[in-house]
Write a structure and sequence with these properties.
Aspartate Aminotransferase, domain 1; 17 strands; four-stranded antiparallel sheet; 2 domains; alpha/beta; Aspartate Aminotransferase, domain 2; seven-stranded mixed sheet; about 45% helix
């Protein structure tokens, strides 16, 4: 009777088992397929083990400066279990962040990139303040304006030069003749190259808060192929940690001054973060240490792979959006035309053969957005970029049999099982 009620013969249990079995097929497709999405990456096997750790079921409260390697912690009036070895790892990640980003303070507690925006806007500006950001039509984040409106801030978009993929200087002069914003949030999601932040800081003066959302570019900044916004005058470097930065789905904040850092840190503690998701925090600390050790080589290879793939796609008839002489100076490629298919149809055709990309609107037209960070993390180099370009041509322009092409893609992708630019080999996690 016990088995009938609680065992595998129970109908509810059977439904759950069926769902879990189906989920395994989806996990296999994600693990073995090729991801060239601009907004995803692959966590190292060491990081993945930490995400599944029993430590993830325990709270990690307070801030780095409040926590000591102790078996107990007092946060406010609450005493709870301390995690001294977790705290030691966190402190190592903080030291790495200070070195990599020249940050006076860092905070790893935010849960996502949108959470960092919510926190910095709420804690560093006031209701009624004017905040300028990038329009979603030109690559800004769709959620920025709703967040600003909900927080009682006045949302404005920076005047934009779509050809240069940067703010329009003349339009910016008009903006500052009319009013001076309290803050500028640079929330760019299609950065083919670095933005001229030092020039912007000179233009707006020292009193305007400048926030740089590095969700797409954190790994490029950490690896030194993009200038460090904090060194160019940004007040806060913020964003999520799972795009070019090869961490889990989480967020982080880095501050140019301790004054601003303390203001945000104290505000987070007062009600913007309770559980910071210890399992994801652990994986983020490891990713920060991986970037300290391997970030320069990794970032350079990302950009080299993107340039190589862009060149190969152009040879095969794809038309790319360029912000300069080269197809890209970042991890991103923006494809405007691709044979008879529009970008959304092309994205679907690629998904059918096991290749993930993004289709989106940009500058009033649909485009295909490609990112090379994950294939780079898997150890792929220029020859693999040529192979991938052939797959794009076969799937999108020549329209080969998708089932046959999918088997080919899966067989190719399955040979790249390891996560490079990580500690996995040293830890014995290498296949």
């Amino acid at each position: 009777m016990h088995d009938v009620v609680y065992g595998t013969a129970n109908p509810a249990t059977q439904r759950v088992l069926g769902l879990l079995k189906a989920l395994r097929f989806e996990e296999r497709d994600v693990a073995e397929g090729l991801s060239l999405t601009a907004n995803e990456n692959r966590v190292s096997k060491a990081g993945r083990l930490l995400i599944a750790s029993p430590l993830g079921e325990r709270y990690l409260l307070g801030t780095t400066n409040e926590r000591l390697p102790s078996p107990f912690v007092v946060a406010g009036r609450l005493m709870l279990r301390g995690l001294p070895r977790v705290i030691a790892l966190e402190q190592a990640a903080n030291r790495a962040a200070a070195k990599i980003f020249a940050a006076q303070m860092s905070d790893f507690r935010p849960l996502s990139g949108m959470h960092t925006t919510l926190c910095t806007i709420a804690l560093l500006t006031r209701p009624g303040d004017a905040v300028y950001s990038i329009s979603p039509a030109y690559g800004g984040h769709f959620a920025t304006r709703p967040i600003l409106h909900r927080l009682g801030r006045r949302s404005h978009y920076l005047p934009w030069d779509s050809r240069r993929m940067c703010w329009d200087e003349d339009g910016l002069s008009d903006v500052f003749r009319r009013s001076r914003p309290a803050a500028i949030l640079l929330d760019h999601g299609v950065a083919l190259g670095p933005l001229p932040i030092a020039a912007l800081r000179t233009r707006v003066g020292p009193r305007v808060l400048v926030l740089y959302d590095a969700s797409h570019t954190f790994g490029l900044i950490a690896g030194g192929v993009f200038p460090n916004p904090l060194c160019e005058g940004c007040d806060v470097l913020q964003g999520n940690t799972h795009k070019t930065f090869p961490g889990p789905h989480k967020g982080m904040l880095h501050f140019r001054s301790r004054r601003i850092g303390c203001k945000v840190r104290n505000g987070l503690s007062a009600g913007f973060v309770s559980s910071q998701h210890t399992h994801h925090a652990l994986a983020l600390y490891v990713a920060m240490l991986e970037m300290e050790a391997f970030g320069e080589d990794y970032a350079r290879r990302i950009v080299a792979n993107a340039a190589a793939l862009g060149g190969e796609l152009e040879k095969r008839g794809f038309e790319l959006l360029r912000a300069g002489a080269a197809p890209t100076a970042s991890n991103l490629l923006i494809v405007k035309k691709m044979g008879a298919l529009d970008p959304y149809q092309a994205c679907e055709a690629l998904l059918r053969v096991g290749v993930a990309t993004n289709a989106r609107m940009l500058n009033g037209q649909p485009v295909l957005r490609i990112g090379t960070q994950e294939v780079t993390r898997r150890g792929m180099l220029r020859p693999e970029m040529q192979w991938i370009a052939d797959v794009f041509y076969s799937a999108v322009i020549r329209r080969d049999n998708p089932d046959r092409l999918r088997r080919k893609v899966m067989a190719f992708s399955s040979t790249y099982k390891n996560v490079h630019y990580s500690f996995d080999r040293t830890l014995g996690l290498w296949n």
